[in-house]
């Protein structure tokens, strides 16, 4: 067990964050995670590419927010800060950008704290997206994000861990209600739409981690933006969301298995 990790980690069960870290080429994972990752990879060889595609979508979305003047980010389900993390992208453009990371996984949180020690414009919170009020209260306590100003709320690859029974639409409504006009919401979310059977089978394996995935339709994902204005090109397969260059888009963008979208809170007139 590496130094500084919390003692409550259950090493007999794989963790979604560490499986993800393994796919991204990170070092913050254990044998149990690598075994599940390899099993998933043998069923769907392009899954590692899918995860990288998710990070790439997040990077492009964060840059669009930075261009719009956003300088504070609440990244929920942030994972292990492996490659191309939000604060690196944001502070690379605006050194004064502030980022609060939130994750349910104690390993992700411990590594985040270790990696971010000394970066005073970042904070880390150990919390569950199913408790949005707590996340908002703890974020306010940290004092990094000014809720009276626009912010970017990032929910990349995390809302699909919330089953319908935990009322994800209410969680999203709570988060949106806390944001000032001009704020942005970024979501990427796994889908069953346009997917081959082997992808659906692999997603089912996620039931072995602490957090099972609920695949959702484009209409359901779009619904999470509520009445905010969804930016062009809408909620689309992730590689199609404002690619850096048309040549970056895979011939089959649907094979990455997830939709991505960004919306802005435009204050209603009057
Ligand atoms: C697929 S990773 C995405 C990481 C990062 N957002 C990205 O896009 O690169 C999903 C992360 O969500 C976290 N997670 C899952 N369920 C969660 C919940 N209920 N509350 C907070 N985080 C959660 C997992 O621990 C994992 O780190």
UniProtKB/TrEMBL annotation:
Keywords: Methyltransferase, Transferase. The keyword Isomerase does not apply. InterPro entries: SAM-dependent_MTases_sf (IPR029063), SAM_dep_MeTrfase_SAV2177_type (IPR006764). GO terms for biological process: methylation. Signal peptide: none annotated. Pfam families: Methyltransf_19. The keyword Transferase applies. This is SAM-dependent methyltransferase. It comes from Micromonospora jinlongensis.
């Amino acid at each position: 067990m590496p130094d500084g990790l919390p003692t409550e980690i259950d090493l007999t069960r794989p963790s979604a964050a560490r499986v993800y870290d393994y796919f991204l080429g990170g070092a913050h994972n254990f044998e149990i995670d690598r075994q599940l990752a390899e099993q998933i990879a043998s069923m769907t060889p392009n899954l590692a590419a899918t995860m990288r595609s998710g990070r790439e979508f997040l990077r492009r979305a964060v840059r669009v927010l930075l261009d719009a003047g956003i300088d504070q980010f609440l990244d929920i389900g942030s994972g292990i800060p492996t490659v191309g993390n939000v604060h690196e992208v944001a502070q690379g453009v605006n050194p004064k950008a502030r980022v609060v990371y939130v994750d349910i996984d104690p390993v992700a949180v411990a590594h985040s704290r270790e990696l971010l020690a000394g970066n005073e414009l970042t904070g880390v919170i150990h919390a569950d997206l199913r408790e949005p009020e707590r996340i908002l209260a703890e974020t306010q306590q940290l004092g990094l994000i000014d809720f009276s100003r626009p912010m970017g709320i990032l929910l990349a690859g995390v809302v699909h861990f919330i089953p319908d029974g935990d009322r994800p639409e209410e969680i999203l409504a709570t988060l949106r209600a806390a944001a000032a006009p001009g704020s942005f919401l970024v979501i990427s979310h796994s889908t069953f739409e346009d997917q081959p059977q082997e992808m659906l089978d692999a997603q089912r394996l996620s039931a072995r981690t602490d957090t099972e995935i609920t695949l959702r339709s484009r209409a359901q994902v779009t619904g999470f933006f509520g009445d905010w204005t969804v930016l062009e090109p809408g909620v689309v397969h992730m590689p199609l969301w404002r690619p850096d260059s048309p040549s970056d888009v895979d011939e089959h963008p649907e094979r990455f298995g997830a939709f991505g979208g960004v919306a802005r809170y435009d204050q209603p007139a009057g």
